[in-house]
Amino acid sequence: MYFFESDYVNGCLPQVLEALVATNDDNTVGYGCDPYCAKAAALIKEACKAPTANVHFLVGGTQTNTTVIAAALRPHQGVLCAQSGHINVHETGAIEATGHKVLPLPAVNGKITAAQIEEAWQAHWNDESHEHVVQPGMVYLSQSTEVGTLYSLAELEEISRVCRQRELFLFVDGARLGYALATPECDVTLADLARLTDAFYIGGTKCGLLFGEAVVITHPALNLDFRYFIKQHGGMLAKGRLLGIQFGALFQNDLYVSACRRGVSCAQKLRDLFSELDIPLFAQSPTNQVFPILTKAEIAALRQRHGFEHWAHVDEQHDAVRFCTSWSTTDEAIEALLSDLRALRGR
Amino acid sequence: MYFFESDYVNGCLPQVLEALVATNDDNTVGYGCDPYCAKAAALIKEACKAPTANVHFLVGGTQTNTTVIAAALRPHQGVLCAQSGHINVHETGAIEATGHKVLPLPAVNGKITAAQIEEAWQAHWNDESHEHVVQPGMVYLSQSTEVGTLYSLAELEEISRVCRQRELFLFVDGARLGYALATPECDVTLADLARLTDAFYIGGTKCGLLFGEAVVITHPALNLDFRYFIKQHGGMLAKGRLLGIQFGALFQNDLYVSACRRGVSCAQKLRDLFSELDIPLFAQSPTNQVFPILTKAEIAALRQRHGFEHWAHVDEQHDAVRFCTSWSTTDEAIEALLSDLRALRGR
Amino acid sequence: MYFFESDYVNGCLPQVLEALVATNDDNTVGYGCDPYCAKAAALIKEACKAPTANVHFLVGGTQTNTTVIAAALRPHQGVLCAQSGHINVHETGAIEATGHKVLPLPAVNGKITAAQIEEAWQAHWNDESHEHVVQPGMVYLSQSTEVGTLYSLAELEEISRVCRQRELFLFVDGARLGYALATPECDVTLADLARLTDAFYIGGTKCGLLFGEAVVITHPALNLDFRYFIKQHGGMLAKGRLLGIQFGALFQNDLYVSACRRGVSCAQKLRDLFSELDIPLFAQSPTNQVFPILTKAEIAALRQRHGFEHWAHVDEQHDAVRFCTSWSTTDEAIEALLSDLRALRGR
Amino acid sequence: MYFFESDYVNGCLPQVLEALVATNDDNTVGYGCDPYCAKAAALIKEACKAPTANVHFLVGGTQTNTTVIAAALRPHQGVLCAQSGHINVHETGAIEATGHKVLPLPAVNGKITAAQIEEAWQAHWNDESHEHVVQPGMVYLSQSTEVGTLYSLAELEEISRVCRQRELFLFVDGARLGYALATPECDVTLADLARLTDAFYIGGTKCGLLFGEAVVITHPALNLDFRYFIKQHGGMLAKGRLLGIQFGALFQNDLYVSACRRGVSCAQKLRDLFSELDIPLFAQSPTNQVFPILTKAEIAALRQRHGFEHWAHVDEQHDAVRFCTSWSTTDEAIEALLSDLRALRGR
Asked: What are phi and psi of A236, to 5 degrees?
């Protein structure tokens, strides 16, 4: 069986595992106040060219989103995001559980635009009854998005400009940021994210670690007392050094991006095949997710040897599915999938 | 430097680390739906003699407490606990953040009694204005407690009886349960906990794992949709198998208890020395925490080579401090501490 | 100046005011435990042909919605409603502030259908990842809706059937229920609402009272400890009798419906005129709200003598506005508006 | 039957009722944006000598406390108050329902001191683990307190000084402020409250109105977007003018204080009698609440003709009870109570 369900079907990168093994018997204080976390934070700030940023380590993505958003917003404020944004659809209402409404905007290719944000802001403040309506207080983006697409630097610059003009925090969910950075057409760097957002996170769980997300906060108001929020939301790992050790390994020798390149190149092989086979794609992702539209019979046949997610109903005969590749996808697995797909179409 | 600050200063047990290394390249589905979690849950149910219980794996203690309590209570209900209970003092208001009042009761040796619970229940329901008061809906205990003490089986039986009579959920925080079970005078077993509570958790983080807590739920109403709550509270680890792998190793060959014995025996050495030196203890813990009352000069001197926590102010000259031992305390460390303590008192 | 901004521009019905004046010097206990509330509750249960229902009195609509929904849902559940539903758009996130996601469905004429509810339920439970998604736990409707439309008895029967089959609570917001009941084409009675829903409320604020909403709860699980919820949400009026006195007057001699008839008939005069003048309507409301599409110049001219709400942008030249009539609309006011509208179109 | 259960057993002052009747047919916009509210706010600001303060009108006390506290605190912060404070004991966890822990301090005579606040602040910030503990963000006092006692101007000045030094918001619950101001020994004025606090409220419900509390906010950060909070917490009365009309009447000709004087003088008659009869008092209240310790037999006998609250268990034979007088206590009622008390003791 081959696993394309997600980018977290494996353990961690060998370099990360070695670091964990090598340090296992060390003794340190807890809660992320150890030297490993300090070192990893320094590496990340350097990679982000953001010497005054604050870096915090949390365990998982939902937790990170919840914690950042809870720290940023007052109770009457909500967070603008794409309709398809992870916080809107796949976190069991974690944001609402902290009291905040998610304010979804229609997304094209999983993305929203600066113009939509400006329009939402105008709609709120021009409404005579705006005190009866949740006030937008933050914008949430994902890079890459939930359908694998990318914000360009120009798009992000424009969104950032609107957010600063309208006093909306800008927060980028980087659960799959490694795959974005590893994609040839991506022109947004870590330094751009640090410069243009108020906070973003560097996803580890899907990009080579056992677990862990590194939040980079550049807005001082958002950073104030942030560790209280981490604790309150259950994100303050007792053995916090595990996060520092892992991120320390990940930010050595550009491992974060180089490891993720494999995920992108495997996905590209799939896309090339789908193109060759004239199989349409449900979403135009250049990163490590691929969304072909297949017949139900093909899907059933593929499920014999491959795990992958149902994505969307298309019509009576067809569904869209998602294949997720990663830093850990083996040659064997991707070749098996390519060959089974070819066989299905008689090639 | 020797670390007695807590029982999470180290990595994990060698058996646990080996299991993680051995399985690192396996591929599985995520979110705890993998075979490792199923296997670990089976081992735990067997150890608890609770074949119909449900076992869920979460990452940390605060998260586990929050998730269980949020799943159990309706919004107008609160949770009775010792004034010194972890949820009341050391979770940055995580319980209140889910909307529930913590209802503290005065504790003796970190414990509350069945009589206090009955009294609180009576006080609520006999109050003409009870609709204006938070309704007790659950009782929270820790085994061992925050000051290292133990509930006896007789005490737990009585508390359980009151809780069932008064329809209060009973939940036991087992962050340090391994040390309780490894303590000679402890007469409460895992099976007793499964039988007498509605939910309890088996702490992994402090008892030999990198991280992880296993919740055992025996009350069906509490288990209903519990995985939604795990997700909402950020506890659904993407690579959930890491929890199954670790707990699987921990519940082989009685490793959970046998590993924790070292923490208890090291603590006993400390207690014996304090007794020999006529150094009074602030709390009467038979487990892996020791709370001597030392002079401020002694404390300052010890801090040169040893890390430990300030616990309580006693008088102008004295403070109580906490030494925490664990499965990972080395001979070298405990001997160094014993010898430095002897030296301070001229022995 | 004439006020068509809303149906709460006036004080209360003379019969209600008289009852308040007549009882002002009485002494009673507080919090709705007085004889006036008991009497009013009995009258309402009789009007609803629901002898075993529970009736509770709250102060306002947002408060009532929040309290009922908070009492009904567990934290991982959300409430299905029309995109245009009051709880989704005009309560400053009060529902989310209690931790629950509002799950909006596209509305036609302000209404949702049984089929949409069934589809949402299916979509949730057929999703492999449903534990990552907010679970639908309740359906919220408004009668009349936010755009003045009505659910027919057939529609309500069908919605109720789906809700019961799928174990979704059904809750109807009756802020403007009096106007619905007073509308000739309305075939839903109070008894139907009591029979088909789990809870609904009878709006007083917009239908002749100074303030006050009467919640009728027929589902025992929802009623359990409901008064705690009222208190927690700030709805337990100290001088609760004020609600009993007012509703007592309102449910004498069918005053609730008869008073609201004036609102509907005034609105009908407006609709007749718009029809005569070929002025299109933005929403097809048969009740006390009318939504003409006027030119911006006409709107500006009307604002000289009349207050009304901007409703929606239509095109460069046109906006939709809302005129709200009520039990208190005077002949003078409606005639002035009709005559000014005629004059604008040269009639 | 005579009602001494509370200070809200009656309707409203005749001047207030007249104002409501006189304006009943007026038409205004809703939500407190009407001229009556503007007028009342101006009168209150004048009475408080606080021309730059903001005045908001809400319906009830629990709602007001919840709204102010929710607007003031970030999620990791809690509110310091007396153990006996209303928010800690009698609001069904409304504060916790917004996510905030109430941080109770031991009270003497229902009051806390500047020294206690300073100590709590020190305890928090000197704790090495303070990030694991709820951070004090506000101090809540009641004037008069829940047991009828008063903060002196000197006490309030000192508390205010500590709060400002430690950046804690200071909020005073004035549910019974009228009775405080009407008590001869009270040396704190409305102007003092406006000068020394960040927000306080002027209770209407217990002091002559049908309902209504006027919040006076002097700290700009607390006032920012405050109306959104009122709406979110269900406090934005549709016919908001009812609050303006009532407070407008109450702040004419010093009616607020002069009306409350009757409550204080009736209570004084009771205190004089208890002194004469050597009946001890449970709390030393100089305002409109009296807490005698009576035998259970006496209590049972009095209950034949008088309503009052059980307050506290004293011993086998005795309980403390509360008699509450008010602006509306009649000569007949107080004389009946005095005479029945005398009779019980054979005088």
From this structure: -90, 95
